[in-house]
Design a protein that fits this description.
Elements (H helix, E strand, L loop, with lengths): L14 E8 L1 H8 L12 H6 L5 E8 L8 E2 L5 H14 L4 E5 L8 H12 L4 E5 L5 E7 L16 H8 L5 E3 L9 H8 L6 H12 L7 H18 L8
Parallel strand pairs: 1-2, 1-4, 2-3, 5-7
Antiparallel strand pairs: 4-6, 5-6
Helix pairs in contact: 6-7, 7-8
Length: about 240
């Protein structure tokens, strides 16, 4: 079934937050994480906190779509799907695009706002490098979406390749953060001072005990302290220029 085209909420809306994700169950499966880790991959709170006048949020999902209004990712591989998403936003008239996934539990609304601020100040690109060589955030002017073409994604060199693509243009980077791609990453997160660390430790305890699947209510019980703490850390961003 053909999807309706992406449109801006108003003609004056010039910024787009692109939430580019797999379906949650698919993400957990690919990362070999138990269902109890689902709250660590939740970004709805973050997305709500990043709302600002002149900015729209567009979800592009791969796999079964559970969110009303989400777009289905189009393409045979990650690169094709990402390129289709950013080109759709560019065609809708957005001038600045910030891309996030759901695999950085320490990402804050302030990081997103900083990326948009730098784009408004003239940066062609803003990168959020991940500790594994990938990126937890990519911000770019819509005029430069072609810079994402033909990159061999998800091989631990995304950040380095993007630095090369934007080497001759004004660009900047946010502080490095860790993403969550495996049980090993979960263990690292559990030893950190991040707000997500306590939940990560609880999930690891369940894994060690052989509990791979929890009743939905148990998952939400684990999620509540993490979601509350993360929401407290979010700050309403300033008005977009």
């Amino acid at each position: 079934m053909e999807q309706p085209p992406v449109t801006a909420s108003t003609p004056a809306c010039r910024e787009a937050l692109l939430v580019f994700v797999n379906a949650l169950a698919l993400d957990l499966h690919q990362r070999r994480l138990p269902g109890s880790a689902a709250p660590l991959l939740e970004v709805e709170t973050l997305v709500r906190a990043a709302a600002a006048p002149g900015r729209d949020v567009h979800w592009f999902e791969h796999g079964p779509i559970a969110r009303r209004g989400s777009q289905r990712q189009v393409g045979t591989d990650f690169g094709q799907r990402l390129q289709h998403a950013v080109e759709s936003l560019r065609a809708a008239g957005y001038a600045r695009i910030v891309i996030i996934g759901r695999d950085c539990p320490t990402l804050q609304a302030a990081d997103l706002e900083e990326a948009f601020t730098r784009l408004r100040s003239g940066d062609a690109a803003v990168l959020g490098p991940a500790s594994d060589g990938g990126c937890y955030l990519i911000g770019l002017q819509a005029a430069h979406t072609d810079a994402l073409r033909d990159i061999p994604w998800c091989r631990g060199r995304d950040a380095a390749r993007l630095r090369t693509r934007f080497a001759d243009l004004p660009s900047s980077e946010l502080p490095e953060q860790a993403d969550l791609d495996s049980i090993l990453d979960l263990r690292r997160l559990a030893t950190s001072l991040a707000v997500a660390a306590e939940l990560a430790r609880r999930v690891l305890a369940l894994v060690a005990a052989g509990v791979r699947r929890l009743h939905e209510q148990a998952v939400f019980a684990l999620a509540e302290p993490f979601a509350a703490a993360r929401e407290r850390l979010q700050r309403p961003p300033p008005l977009a220029a």
